[in-house]
Amino acid sequence: MKRSILKTAMVAALGIGLMGASAIAQEKIALVVSTLNNPFFVTLKDGAVDKAKELGYELVVLDSQNNPAKELANVEDILVKGTKVLLINPTDSDAVGNAVLAANKAGVPVITLDRASAKGEVVSHIASDNVAGGKAAGDFIVEKLGNEVKVIQLQGIVGTSASRERGDGFKQSQEANGFNIIAAQPADFDRAKGMNVMQNLLTANPNVEAVFAENDEMALGAVRAIRSAGKDNVLVVGFDGTDDAIKAVERGQMAATIAQQPELIGAKGVEAAELIIKGEVPEANIPVELKIITK
Amino acid sequence: MQQGIKKFLIDQKSLIALVVLIIGVSTLNENFFTLNNIFNILQQTSVNAIIAVGMTLVILTSGIDLSVGSVFALTGAVAASIIGQDMNPFIAVIAGLALGACIGFGSGVIIAKGKLQAFIATLVMMLIIRGATQVYTQGSPIGLGMSDYAYMFEWIGFGRVFGIPMPIIIMAVVFIVAGYILKFTRLGRHIYAVGGNESATRLSGINVDRVKIIVYMISGLLCAIAAMIEVSRLSSAQPTAGMGYEMDAIAAVVLGGTSMAGGRGKIIGTLIGALILGFLNNGMNLLGVDAYYQMIVKGGVILLAVLIDNKTARA
């Protein structure tokens, strides 16, 4: 019995201790983010947090851990807690639908970030154009090495919208320019897998001239594999513009990275939310430009 | 008799923790203890709770089922694709449940007849079924579509009977049936016996293999039932669905006071364990606890519960 009191007391203490600083009454905005286990979305969150601080809003951030069920639960929770605007970075465009509908039903305006929602009413969608980015990567390779170039494509996690869209854009460029994709394999957006897959592909395709990786982590893994195979003239293009990749570009190990600007996506999300709170209507589509980072 | 009292006390302890958690968060946030929010939490909990029921039966036989998340994903995907092709949702549900039970049957046979450790067998099953899910879905989510049948299917996730959401009703039925089986049927007694002392059970003439195969079948079936709820609630099936659900289910079982060594535990404890996790998630969201700290708190609560249970079990 004594122990049960101890247990209950500790659970209660945890609850009270974690109440945190929600004392000052500011207008509340919620951000439900697909995952905080990936630097890209952490940067997106940081951009939103900074902008909210600057404009004087309380921003509540919830992590969906890449799970649409958790995402729906987060949205249901935040609707109970109350928020003026819901910023949501969906885990998946289809699966987020019912979460958006729930917000619609509760009368809370929804803004989607980075990924769109297939269902429900969304006031504004803010994203960089992954398809255009994939196309830009292909065009960049052709610009450097010509139409006949032999390219290997490292794909991200199969089925994710980022992988699909970047791949689609890259394919568009291939169809327009007619270059050869001699191999395409998934390496799950992961650096170590990028290296392993690239090592295997290099053995099978020693004549490769360029690599397009659907994110920078895989690109950096591919760079490792290429260098340890003693090939210096393979052109590597990554995607995302992470710090490591930009360094690699500066050192000449990578040719380019197609950089999204996640902090700008987050910041523009909060700006659009402010417009809604002030009774104005933000643009339905707010594109955030991509930039090709080269040496 | 004394054993019974001890078990009862362990259950009570989880219940007290749950009640304190509810009272604690209620005092900090006025929106927490509303019917609307309670329904929210129960619906959110239903998926994990139903999977955890199967996990409880498996753990009671001193086994483990690591394949639950994969089975959940594949059965959900199969059901969603059937509805996506404008077929009767009844067929989709039956197909999903049958598939879940079949996979569970497979795991059970491998464990019982192949004499493989449950950990290894279900780990292998987890990989194979996850792979099968990726093959089946081609890595893309499967939507339910907009047909009348899709709306019929969504009744599982959104329907209400007497104002109570369907997922909650399904969860309640699953717990009542499982509780009845464990408490009042021969199978229930055999499950405890297998987990308590397998060789003694075998020597006393009970078909241990049969008991094992049945519990893994039930586990697979319950994964499929949970998958129907989630697919219906999301209107789509994800190839990556259910990742990590085995851990959530094990956490609920352990929080509910069931021994990982098998033979000791109650189904009501699992319900309370799942509810503690559900209320904790919701409470932390309502209190605005930082996302990263939420994981630490969850881990801490589970650790605490296990440590205390361990001590009381030995005392």
Short description:
Chain A is α/β, with parallel strands linked by helices and 295 residues long. In chain A, 47% of the residues lie in helices and 20% in strands.
Q: Which CATH C-level class of the largest domain in chain A is it? A: Alpha Beta
From the alpha carbons, calculate the radius of gyration of chain B and give it in angstroms. 19 Å
Count of individual helical segments of chain B: 13
The H/E string of chain A reads HEHEHEHEEHEHEHEHEHEHEE
Low-confidence stretches of chain A: 17-24
CA radius of gyration of chain A is 22 Å
Span from first to last CA of chain B?
Answer: 16 Å
Record the strand order, biggest sheet of chain B: 1-4
Largest interface: A-B, 47 and 60 residues
Helix fraction bin of chain A: 40-55%
Helix content of chain B: over 70%
How large is the share of residues in beta strands of chain B? under 5%
Structural class of chain B: mainly alpha
Class from secondary-structure proportions of chain A: alpha/beta
Task: Tell me the quaternary state.
Answer: heterodimer
Strand order in the largest sheet of chain A: 2-1-3-4-5-11
Helix count, DSSP H or I runs of 4 or more residues of chain A: 10
| Domain module count of chain A | 2
Overview of this structure, please?
The complex is a heterodimer of chains A (295) and B (315). With 295 residues, chain A is α/β, with parallel strands linked by helices. Chain A folds into two domains: 27-126 and 262-287, 3-Layer(aba) Sandwich (Rossmann fold); 130-259, Response regulator (Rossmann fold, 3-Layer(aba) Sandwich). In chain A, 47% of the residues lie in helices and 20% in strands. Chain A contains ten helices and twelve strands. In chain A, the strands form two sheets. Chain A has a six-stranded parallel beta sheet, sandwiched between helices. Chain A has a six-stranded mixed beta sheet with strand order 7-6-8-9-10-12, sandwiched between helices. In chain A, helix 2 packs parallel to helix 10 (262-277), helix 3 runs parallel beside helix 4 and helix 5 (130-145) runs parallel beside helix 6 (161-177). The radius of gyration of chain A is 22 Å and the shape is elongated. Chain B is globular and about 55 Å long. In chain B, 77% of the residues lie in helices and 3% in strands. Chain B has a two-stranded antiparallel ribbon with strand order 1-4. A two-stranded antiparallel sheet of chain B has the order 2-3. Chain B: InterPro entries: ABC_transp_permease. Chain B: It holds the Pfam family BPD_transp_2. Chain B: It is a multi-pass membrane protein. Chain B: Belongs to the binding-protein-dependent transport system permease family. AraH/RbsC subfamily.
